[in-house]
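Review form for a predicted model. The reviewer records the input and the model, then writes brief findings.
Reviewer: anonymous (R2)
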Amino acid sequence: MSEETTIEPTDGLWSRLRLIEGQPLPVRAAAYAAVHDELSRRLESGAKLDPRETSGSR
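Model under review:
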């Protein structure tokens, strides 16, 4: 059996997603679109992740 571990990001993503899940559907859709846009911009900019957010080393 393998033990599952969850590493929570330090930028509040999990709490933000939990908050979004509690919203009415139209608000939730807009909020998820905003999260998607923000994460896409961060990826495209090559923003460095906090080392605590990575799951492995190179």
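Findings: The longest helix spans residues 25-45.
Further findings: The chain has a mean pLDDT of 78.
Recommendation: see findings above.
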